[in-house]
Every structure is written in structure tokens, then in C-alpha cells.
Design goal:
The strands form 3 sheets. Strands 2, 3, 4, 9, 10 and 11 form a 6-stranded parallel beta sheet that branches. Helix 2 packs parallel to helix 8 and helix 7 packs parallel to helix 8. This protein has a single domain, classed as Glycoside hydrolase/deacetylase (TIM Barrel). Helices cover 36% and strands 18% of the residues. By secondary structure, it is an alpha/beta fold.
Length: 246
């Protein structure tokens, strides 16, 4: 009988430590923010890892600067190392806040789940390393430790997300509008998606593929939103009003 109880105890313990969710909107990920104003948050990812993925969409960033558009930029460690001088310029511009997009651009899992052919972290320690090694890089470049994190592929299980929030004290930035689907969409589709933005939306797009339709689509979409009276905020400005997945 004691052996049976012990087996049941181990089974329950293992089940308690097994994630139940896997996706872009698991518990603890912020999806939108509450507001009574016409406010939207623009977030841009820079992934790195290859020559093509380490690009810099200067046209897009210059447009944001020229039009005084705030944005939160999620930078992967590999992209930063390939673009050190650009990083230094971005960190001096008050329109932008710099955020953590991981060290090796891995999905965040405690047991090695994968998505889009990318293998996720396989343990709690790997989760911490994927986040913290990039934080250390930020700090070595005289950048404040980021407040926000977004994993490679933006996929998580809820236990990995909890580690980031509770143990590393960082917010996980999700989104309510996928503007460019990994910089694969044509500019008209990017324009349409952004133009349909509503109060409190968080937009995700990319700043590392100048060859794509992202820049033109975002530019025209933002112009359309500005005509409608929208303003743009950094995520830190709405940190206390974030709405989370459950």
C-alpha cells in the first residue's frame, strides 16, 4: 500500500511540473493594454542568426524618428553583436526603449518543445540562460537591464513564462496585431493589418528585413492611424495597464 501511495505521489508531482499550455498567448503574456485614449504600442523585433536576419531596416527606423513615433525594440543577442554601432545609436534615442529578444532566439519551454523547426529551451536553467545572457550583453554595453522580454518565435509554455515573470522580474510582451508575419507579408497586407489597429493594441513587426514589404506597409499604416488621431506609446509607459492572457 505504501508503495502505491508513493507511486501516486510521484505521478502527481510530475504532472504538477508538466506544462499545460504552449503558444503565443499563454498565462502571463501581455496581449494588450487598457486605455480610454487612442493609443497603440508599436514593437519591432530584430532576430539575427544569419546574414539576412541580421539586417537593419534603416528606412523604417528613420521614418519613426522623422515622425516622432515611439517604439519598443526587441533585440536578439546575435543581432546586437552584428550591429553594435547601430545598437549604440538606438540606445541614445529617447523615442525607443530597447528590450530583450533572447540570446539564441529560442522558443521558451521547460522541456524542449519546438515550433517552426526551432527547438525550445529544455530546462529551467536553459530558460534562465536564454534570457539572462542577453541581459548581460545589454548591461556590458551600458544599457539598463531590459524591462521586457519576447522569446524567439514568441512561443512559451506557461511554466517558462512564470520563471521569466516571477524569478527574473521581467514582463513578457505579446501582441494583438501580427503586422508582417515574420517579415513575410507584402506591404499592402501589412498596411491593412496596422490600419485596423484599435485602442490598446500591441503591434508586432520586424526591423531586420529591409528587403521585405514591412517598412512601406508600416509607414503607410502609421500615417493612416495618425490621421485617425492615434498616438504611439512605449510599453514601459503602459506597464501598469497591461492586459494578460489567462
Amino acid at each position: 500500500m505504501k508503495k502505491l501511495y508513493f507511486v501516486l505521489f510521484l505521478t502527481l508531482l510530475l504532472e504538477a511540473n508538466e506544462p499545460k499550455q504552449w503558444g503565443e498567448d499563454v498565462t502571463g503574456v501581455s496581449l494588450k493594454f487598457s486605455t480610454s485614449k487612442k493609443e497603440i504600442a508599436l514593437t519591432l523585433d530584430a532576430c539575427g542568426g544569419s546574414i539576412k536576419s541580421s539586417g537593419y531596416d534603416e528606412k523604417l527606423i528613420n521614418f519613426l524618428i522623422e515622425n516622432n513615433i515611439k517604439a519598443t525594440l526587441f533585440l536578439n543577442a546575435r543581432w546586437i553583436k552584428s550591429n553594435l554601432e547601430i545598437f549604440k545609436k538606438l540606445q541614445k534615442n529617447n523615442l525607443f526603449e530597447l528590450a530583450n529578444h533572447g540570446t539564441e532566439h529560442r522558443p521558451l519551454s521547460i522541456n524542449g518543445k519546438n515550433i517552426y523547426g526551432q527547438i525550445g529551451t529544455k530546462s529551467k536553467q536553459e530558460v534562465i540562460s536564454e534570457v539572462e545572457e542577453n541581459n548581460k550583453l545589454f548591461q556590458s554595453l551600458n544599457q539598463t537591464r531590459p524591462l521586457f522580454f519576447r522569446s524567439g518565435t514568441a512561443y512559451y509554455d506557461e511554466l517558462a513564462a512564470k520563471i521569466v515573470k516571477d524569478e527574473l522580474n521581467m514582463e513578457i510582451a505579446g501582441f494583438s496585431i501580427i503586422a508582417d508575419a515574420g517579415a513575410t507579408l507584402v506591404e499592402d497586407e501589412v498596411f491593412n493589418r496596422i490600419s485596423n489597429g484599435k485602442n490598446g493594441d500591441i503591434i508586432i513587426a520586424h526591423m531586420n528585413h529591409p528587403e521585405s514589404g514591412t517598412a512601406n506597409g508600416i509607414k503607410d499604416g502609421i500615417k493612416n492611424l495618425l490621421k485617425k488621431g492615434f498616438t504611439f506609446v512605449k510599453l514601459s509607459e503602459v506597464k501598469n495597464r497591461l492586459i494578460y492572457a489567462k
